[in-house]
Amino acid sequence: MGEPERLHVPVLLDEVLAGLRLAPGQNVVDGTVGMGGHARGILERTAPDGRLLGIDRDPNALAVAAEELAEFGSRAVLRRGEFRHLGEIVAEAGLGRVDGVLLDLGVSSLQLDRPERGFSFQEEGPLDMRMDPSAPLTAEEIVNQWPADELADLIYAYGEERHSRRVARAIVAARPLRTTGELARAVSRAVGGRSGGIHPATRTFQALRIAVNAELESLEEVLPQAVALLRPGGRLAVIAFHSLEDRIVKQFMAREARDCICPPRLPVCVCGHQATLRPVTRKPLRATEAEVARNPRSRSARLRIAERLEAQEGAQESES
Ligand SMILES: C[S@@+](CC[C@H](N)C(=O)[O-])C[C@H]1O[C@@H](n2cnc3c(N)ncnc32)[C@H](O)[C@@H]1O
Question: Do residue 231 and residue 92 come from a single domain?
Answer without folding.
Answer: yes
